């Protein structure tokens, strides 16, 4: 029998370390899953599975759970569209177009990675009022996109740097301008990074509570993240209604969980391919 080589040999040599790593991962998974398992058990304690049908078909404090999912997905889609569109243009520009002060502007953009959402809350509130965007989906998507764009520029410029300049030079020799190069060369090659960025943007938007709570006051526009708090007073203290509230919490967590499970492959692929250089 041949002797294992490469990663397999190292794995066998460090089997004890591997066991420890798996034990730590299992413990971590249990700790992360414990709140969800507790919520599911509590949702079935009184009333059983019927609690889920009750909260799906009912309205609590003027909020309908299916409507919150629709609102969240609309905002998340707008957020991802803005971030991917503007981020890809900026990433291509900073990587493939030479202009005075390019690096200074690029690092100036990256500084905004350190700006927290609460730091721009007052300006966002004022600008939203000036643009008459209160109680609109785009009014929430725009500030979310503003916070995500520095990361998008970083990710897509790094990805664009991995695309050989020879492709751009060859296209230029054939008479293609930057607009055509961007559409026909950069965007197809950057698809893994864009899918990765889009999935992350949707996931972050679904988790956002601050901007929807600041900009959306109409119960019909409540997002899933807001609904966790908004619908709480709509349930009484009885055991059955408490179980129904836990059922609502479980349902509100479903979109983000589904996105993570279905999008993890794309996120991992985008990060891996984005780290490869020619």
Short description:
The chain is mainly α. The protein has 13 helices and two strands, in the order H-H-H-E-E-H-H-H-H-H-H-H-H-H-H. The protein has a two-stranded antiparallel ribbon.
Helix and strand topology:
Layout (H helix, E strand, L loop, with lengths): L5 H8 L1 H31 L4 H8 L1 E2 L2 E2 H32 L5 H10 L9 H10 L6 H25 L3 H9 L4 H12 L1 H17 L2 H6 L8 H7 L8 H36 L4
Antiparallel strand pairs: 1-2
Provide structural commentary.
With 278 residues, the chain is mostly helical. The protein has two domains: 6-45; 52-274, MetI-like fold (Orthogonal Bundle), CATH 1.10.3720.10. It has helices spanning 6-13, 15-45, 50-57, 65-96, 102-111, 121-130, 137-161, 165-173, 178-189, 191-207, 210-215, 224-230, 239-274, and strands at 59-60, 63-64. Strands 1-2 form a two-stranded antiparallel sheet. Strand 1 (59-60) and strand 2 form a beta hairpin. Helix 4 (65-96) crosses helix 10 (191-207) and helix 7 (137-161) runs antiparallel to helix 10 (191-207). The two termini are 37 Å apart.
């Amino acid at each position: 029998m041949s002797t294992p080589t490469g990663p397999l040999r190292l794995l066998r040599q460090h089997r004890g370390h591997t066991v420890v790593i798996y034990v730590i991962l299992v413990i971590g998974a249990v700790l992360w899953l414990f709140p969800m398992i507790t919520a599911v058990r509590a949702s079935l304690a009184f009333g059983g599975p019927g609690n889920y049908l009750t909260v799906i078909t009912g309205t609590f404090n003027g909020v309908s759970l299916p409507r919150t999912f629709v609102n969240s997905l609309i905002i998340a889609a707008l957020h991802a569209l803005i971030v991917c569109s503007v981020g890809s243009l900026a990433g291509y520009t900073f990587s493939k177009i030479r202009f005075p002060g390019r690096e200074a502007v690029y690092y100036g953009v990256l500084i905004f990675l350190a700006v927290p959402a609460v730091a721009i809350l007052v300006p966002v509130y004022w600008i939203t009022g000036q643009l008459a965007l209160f109680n609109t989906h785009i009014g929430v998507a725009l500030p979310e996109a503003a916070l995500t764009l520095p990361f998008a520029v970083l990710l897509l410029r790094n990805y664009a740097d991995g695309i050989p300049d020879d492709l751009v030079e060859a296209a230029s020799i054939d008479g293609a301008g930057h607009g055509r190069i961007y559409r026909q060369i950069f965007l197809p090659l950057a698809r893994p990074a864009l899918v990765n960025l889009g999935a992350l943007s949707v996931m972050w938007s679904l988790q956002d509570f601050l901007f929807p709570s600041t900009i959306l006051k109409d119960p019909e526009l409540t997002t899933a993240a807001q609904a966790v708090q908004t619908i709480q007073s709509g349930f009484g203290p009885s055991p059955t209604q408490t179980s129904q509230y836990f059922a609502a919490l479980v349902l509100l967590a479903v979109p983000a969980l589904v996105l993570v499970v279905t999008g993890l492959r794309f996120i991992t692929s985008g990060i891996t391919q984005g780290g490869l250089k020619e």
